[in-house]
């Protein structure tokens, strides 16, 4: 085919009418073409402004034959207004007032276009167009890479914006764009800009990198959903949102950002799910203004490179961190200003030089079931109006566990502070606070250090092994109710002590035992401060989840038989009949990794749904949580664990460790005796499940004659067989979007069959570890491929199995 010519295959309704013609220009060929015709451009340069309005196919030459360049002196090089297919063209535009490719009022398919231009935009989609664009590359040193607006949309797959003088991708409402496996780099202003009402972007597996400005900008009620995306190496913020913008980031990563990784203002809403934020110069997440909100779940924020808090919430904004991790940062979370609020639930905060949580200027924080490790201060409520709750948290190896100052007044309940350097709790400058069932253990300074004039209230608190004193305050200090310490100071005795107060100078105070202070107030009922009752799932839904577990057939039958007995008994009582007494306490025996904890959790949920238990939650403990190091401390710890489980299930793993064969003066027997009495006195309040290896649990039940009689039945969890372990791996692979390639199932079956099933065999844990090892070996193999396909990225083969 001649260079610079266009071959057209004219098609008709009948085979005999088909013919082939050759034209000198693309414009002539298009004028002669009808719907269904195929135009093949020879290699060469076409100085034409192409306008495609028919449903034709326009195709450039094969790569080996050269390229077809569409390069007019001015105007739009390529305009598509029909449902055409356009392939393998090189587009070169020179008009800074016009796009290089314009798509209007049509649904064409464009693929393998190479756009090198200095235009207003590389590809402009408008007028309600909905193109499908695949494997195209845009370099536009002057304007926007891809622009979408005026009610348009479309799908862009495996496209690359290699350079843009303005935003890499710009969506202006109303418009809706979907990006899949696209890459945006070397943009100016922002990598992705979404602005205006009814503008939306869905992006999957996309990279935004090396941007002079923000990685993503959303404004004016724009929305975006990003899944498995990566944003990095910007000069500005990673993501900036304002004016009612809404963004969801799932399984995504933002890293190497010199400013804020995520910055939200003016009523914007961000949801983070299973995402990572790391190596940021200012805040990891910065949230400002009333109505602005962040919801983060299973997200990690870490490795700050600056001196700012990882999460900053101010000016009336709100934030929720649930099951998140914040680590290796100067400060973890700062909440400032009246109306600002942060909820931190079931999260990990560790390796923080300053404060894990700081609340000031009238802000509020709710911190629940969160673990803080190696932090400067666990929680600091700084001034008047600043408050909230800290419930069920552990703070380990902090300088000071909790600080309350300047009229702040939070409530702290069921918290444990271990090994603080200066104090477990420090209250100064008219700070108040209510502390209920809190414990300080192993402080190198004080347990509770409360300065003159601070009227805190302590209820059923305890200190152990505090080097400088368990409770330190003046006579006109806090009000104590039923508090304890292992100090041997007689009531009324005192010794001068110079406090090592963090951040605030303090005068000398007196060290006295808790019993020597204010008269005790009436004791509250145990468990009265428990968390609100959660709405239960229907019992059939929970039973369905139980049934979906791999294997465990005999276990499922045992549990369902017990549930049937309880349900029928409940119905007989409702009918005015006698109901057989059913003991609900259970013994679980078997090796590790056989699903004992999971079944215990579901058992509690089912009992809650049947109205047998008030809450149905699971509290898991072991010997270290129940057995103290001093006489009397074991009974207190066991009582506290039992109280936490009120209305639910107390699950004691490796319960046989409470009665070692060579017990001697071991305090484990005290825990068993205390537990037996509590089970009798509060038989309807808590279900107790003890678990461990079969032989060891038989010995445990024989230690105390009252123990065996408290449990209704023993349920044995057998080891998983090879087929069941294979099923676990298959299920986990599906959840993580992997597939087992040819021969992999057979190899896994042999692998699990050959594994020794000794006492250390991990069952389900072994299956999960095997899958994780396969994923790691697969990554090492596929990383060597220059351009792996989707199949290569997902298939696991026998060679990915770890060595036996």
TrEMBL record:
Keyword Nucleotide-binding: yes
Superkingdom field: Bacteria
Boundaries of every AAA+ ATPase domain copy: 582-721
Protein's UniProt keywords contain Cell membrane: no
Disordered: annotated segments: 514-533
InterPro entries the record matches: AAA+_ATPase, AAA_lid_6, ATPase_AAA_core, Beta_helix, CbxX/CfxQ, CbxX/CfxQ_RuBisCO_ESX, P-loop_NTPase, PbH1
Keywords for the protein's UniProt record, in alphabetical order: ATP-binding, Nucleotide-binding
SUPFAM superfamilies according to UniProt: P-loop containing nucleoside triphosphate hydrolases, Pectin lyase-like
Homology family: Belongs to the CbxX/CfxQ family.
Name used for this protein in its record: Right-handed parallel beta-helix repeat-containing protein
Species whose genome carries this gene: Streptomyces carpaticus
């Amino acid at each position: 085919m001649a260079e610079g010519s266009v071959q057209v295959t004219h098609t008709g309704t009948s085979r005999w009418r088909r013919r082939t013609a050759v034209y000198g220009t693309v414009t002539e060929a298009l004028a002669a073409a009808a719907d269904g015709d195929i135009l093949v451009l020879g290699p060469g340069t076409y100085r034409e402004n192409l306008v495609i309005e028919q449903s034709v196919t326009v195709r450039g030459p094969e790569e080996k034959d050269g390229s077809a360049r569409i390069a007019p002196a001015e105007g739009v090089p390529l305009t598509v207004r029909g449902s055409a297919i356009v392939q393998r063209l090189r587009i070169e535009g020179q008009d800074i007032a016009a796009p290089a490719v314009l798509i209007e009022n049509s649904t064409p398919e464009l693929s393998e276009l190479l756009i090198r231009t200095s235009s207003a935009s590389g590809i402009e989609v408008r007028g309600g167009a909905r193109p499908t664009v695949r494997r195209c590359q845009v370099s536009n040193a002057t304007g926007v890479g891809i622009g979408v607006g005026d009610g348009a949309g479309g799908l862009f797959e495996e496209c690359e914006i290699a350079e843009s003088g303005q935003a890499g991708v710009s969506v202006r409402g109303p418009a809706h764009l979907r990006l899949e496996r696209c890459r945006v780099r070397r943009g100016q202003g922002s990598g992705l800009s979404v602005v205006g009402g009814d503008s939306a972007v869905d992006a999957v597996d996309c990279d935004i990198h090396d941007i002079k400005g923000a990685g993503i900008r959303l404004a004016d009620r724009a929305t975006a959903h990003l899944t498995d995306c990566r944003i990095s190496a910007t000069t500005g913020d990673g993501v900036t949102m304002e004016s009612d913008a809404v963004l969801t980031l799932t399984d995504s990563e933002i890293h190497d950002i010199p400013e804020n990784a995520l910055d939200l203002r003016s009523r914007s809403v961000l949801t983070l799910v299973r995402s990572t934020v790391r190596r940021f110069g200012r805040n990891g997440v910065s949230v400002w203004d009333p109505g602005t909100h962040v919801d983060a779940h299973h997200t990690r924020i870490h490795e700050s490179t600056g001196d700012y808090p990882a999460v900053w919430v101010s000016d009336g904004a709100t934030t929720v961190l649930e099951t998140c991790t914040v680590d290796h940062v100067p400060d973890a979370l700062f909440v400032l200003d009246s109306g600002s609020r942060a909820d931190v639930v079931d999260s990990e905060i560790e390796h923080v030089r300053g404060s894990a949580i700081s609340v000031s200027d009238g802000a509020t924080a709710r911190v629940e079931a969160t673990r803080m490790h190696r932090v400067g201060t666990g929680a600091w409520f700084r001034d008047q109006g600043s408050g909230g709750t800290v419930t069920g948290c552990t703070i380990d190896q902090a300088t000071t566990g909790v600080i309350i100052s300047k009229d702040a007044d939070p409530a702290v309940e069921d918290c444990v502070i271990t090994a603080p350097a200066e104090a477990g709790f420090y209250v100064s400058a008219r700070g108040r606070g209510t502390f209920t069932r809190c414990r300080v253990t192993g402080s190198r300074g004080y347990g509770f250090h409360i300065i003159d004039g601070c009227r805190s209230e302590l209820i059923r608190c305890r200190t152990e092994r505090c080097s400088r004193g368990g409770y330190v305050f003046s006579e006109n200090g806090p009000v104590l109710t039923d508090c304890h310490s292992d100090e041997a100071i007689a009531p009324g005795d005192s010794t001068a002590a110079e406090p090592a107060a963090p951040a605030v100078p303090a005068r000398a105070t007196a060290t006295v035992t808790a019993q020597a202070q204010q008269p005790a107030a009436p004791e509250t009922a145990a468990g009265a401060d428990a968390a609100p009752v959660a709405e239960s799932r229907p019992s059939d839904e929970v039973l369905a989840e139980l049934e979906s577990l791999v294997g465990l057939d005999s276990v499922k039958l045992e549990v369902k038989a017990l549930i049937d007995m309880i349900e029928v008994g409940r119905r007989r009582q409702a009918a005015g009949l006698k109901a057989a007494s059913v003991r609900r306490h259970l013994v679980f025996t078997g090796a590790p990794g056989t699903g004992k904890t999971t079944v215990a959790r579901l058992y509690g949920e089912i009992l809650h749904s049947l109205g047998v238990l008030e809450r149905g939650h699971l509290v898991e403990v072991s010997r270290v949580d129940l057995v103290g190091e001093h006489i009397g401390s074991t009974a207190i710890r066991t009582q506290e664990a039992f109280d936490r489980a009120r209305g639910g299930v107390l699950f004691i793993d490796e319960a046989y460790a409470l009665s070692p064969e060579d017990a001697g003066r071991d305090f484990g027997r005290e825990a068993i005796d205390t537990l037996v009495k509590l089970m009798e006195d509060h038989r309807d309040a808590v279900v107790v499940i003890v678990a461990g290896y079969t032989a060891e649990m038989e010995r445990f039940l024989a230690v105390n004659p009252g123990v065996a009689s408290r449990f209704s039945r023993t349920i044995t969890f057998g080891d998983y067989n090879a087929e069941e372990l294979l099923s676990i791996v298959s299920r986990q692979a599906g959840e993580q979007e992997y597939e087992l390639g040819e021969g992999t199932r057979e190899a896994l079956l042999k692998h699990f069959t050959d594994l020794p099933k000794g006492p250390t065999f991990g069952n389900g844990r072994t299956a999960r570890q095997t899958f994780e090892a396969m994923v790691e070996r697969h990554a090492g193999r596929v990383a060597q491929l220059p351009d792996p396909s989707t199949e290569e990225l997902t298939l696991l083969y026998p060679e990915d199995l770890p060595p036996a």
